Amino acid sequence: MIYFSFAAVLIGMPVENFAAEPLVIDNVAVYDVSSSALRSNQSIVIVGHLITQVGPTASITIPGNATVISGIGLTVMPGLTDAHVHMNEIDSGTFLANGVTSVRELNGSVQHLILRDDIASGNVLGPRLLVSSPLISGRSIQFRHSVVETPAQAEQLVDELFSAGYDYLKIYDDLSEDAYLQLVTSAKNLNMEFVGHIPKSVGLKGVLSAGQSIEHNEKIVADVLHPDYSDFEPLRSAAELIFNAGVAVTPTLAVHEFLNDRQSGEVRVRLLSDELAYVDEETLGWWNAIFPDHGGVGGHSSGGQDFLNAQRFLLGEMAIRGVPIMAGTDTPNPLMIAGFSLHDELDALVRAGLSNEDAIRAATIVPGAQMPWSVGIGEVKVGYAADLLLIRGDPSDDISALRHPVGVISNGKWLDREQLDRLLTAARRR
């Protein structure tokens, strides 16, 4: 496991000897993600891991032993959440350096559970973490997984995963209807969350009836429109069904934008960018096999422009109706780089028609409300986790401001830009 020292950012060392004194961000603008209002001349007091005071600077009592950070000319907002990742421990640095203070790992392992608990206890510096089970599939696949073919196997597996401490079941493909329904029943009996794909045996209506939140707009589009992706009209009804079911959706749209047009300038820039230093050689080899010469998409399974446009259309229809949308990247899928790619996903949400404000909510207040965190996240409120982002400007005017945090507070620990850059240095793969 990789650890990052707060003081020296040394690999292999736990986080120790953090100052016990309160932390104050003084005279700062606070961005309210709920209303999109920017409240000026505010101060925030943090004690331990929690926000204990927020309000006009003149009304805040600063503890005498506090460390005070001047917020003049700056804006504070909740840290960002990536709701769909497949991470390694070394990715912790790139997440935090990009303002991503919480993530949901959706193909978990025992090592992820250990990392989750070490981060929560403050022993390790990294993004707050929720961990799903390994993929639950109806057949053997190349990724980490458990095979479930019968209801009896489903019941036994859920008991084991719950006892192991996983936060979610991750539903994958090829499950029989009986096995799927038993997974859901067993999870509900244990008050365990479940999320994932849409098994063909139950379809969209089946997972909505079960109350399962859904990963990937592509899965919904494929279920509703296949094989004709040119007529979007049925997606209106699908969006209505999703809204009525009250479940959340994580679109993971940016990866499909990259896959759809291998000749785009954005793809060429990403393949030549310095950010590739944070990608391991095996993953980079996989990406280069997909984009060998920046050629056209051809027969790639992304489905072409109609398929991408259908995903965007669905997103817009869900947003209009008020479906909870969560920003997730599916890193390390093609060109999705831990931390950096969440900003690509926010841009993709905006290109699909969401406002800057709604895209920001998809990475803050919505995952804060939709996920089983042990403490409130996603808002700047008393009693909430001290997971915060310090930026310049108003992110509702310029969402790119989120790409360049001046500082990050993670689990009550202050990281200025120099320390964030050290985290990036420690996270380089080559």
Structure overview:
The chain has 430 residues and is α/β, with parallel strands linked by helices. It has a domain at 79-372: Metal-dependent hydrolases (TIM Barrel). It is built from 15 helices and 16 strands. Strands 1, 2, 3, 4, 5, 14, 15 and 16 form an 8-stranded mixed sheet that branches. Strands 6, 7, 8, 9, 10, 11, 12 and 13 form an 8-stranded parallel sheet that branches. Strand 11, helix 5 and strand 12 (213-215) form a beta-alpha-beta unit. Helix 3 packs parallel to helix 4 (177-189) and helix 6 (217-225) crosses helix 11. The longest helix has 18 residues, at 304-321.
Give the full name of the CATH homologous superfamily of the domain at 79-372.
Metal-dependent hydrolases
Query: What is the SS-derived class?
Result: alpha/beta
Mean pLDDT: 91
Instruction: Bin the helical content.
Output: 25-40%
Tell me about the biggest sheet?
8 strands, mixed
Runs with pLDDT <50, length 5+?
1-19, 294-302
Radius of gyration: 21 Å
CATH topology of the domain at 79-372: TIM Barrel
In the CATH hierarchy, the architecture of the domain at 79-372 is Alpha-Beta Barrel
Look at the structure and give the CATH class of the domain at 79-372: Alpha Beta
Structure keywords:
430 residues; TIM Barrel; 35% helix
Structure, briefly:
By secondary structure, this protein is of the alpha/beta class.
Show the helix and strand layout:
Elements: E1 23-31, E2 38-47, E3 50-56, E4 67-70, E5 75-78, E6 80-85, H1 92-97, E7 100-105, H2 110-120, E8 128-137, E9 145-147, H3 151-164, E10 168-171, H4 177-189, E11 193-196, H5 203-210, E12 213-215, H6 217-225, H7 234-245, E13 249-250, H8 254-260, H9 265-271, H10 281-290, H11 304-321, H12 340-351, H13 356-362, H14 365-370, E14 388-391, E15 407-410, E16 413-416, H15 417-427
Parallel strand pairs: 1-4, 1-5, 6-7, 7-8, 8-9, 8-10, 10-11, 11-12, 12-13
Antiparallel strand pairs: 1-2, 2-3, 5-14, 14-15, 15-16
Helix pairs in contact: 3-4, 5-7, 6-11, 7-11, 12-13
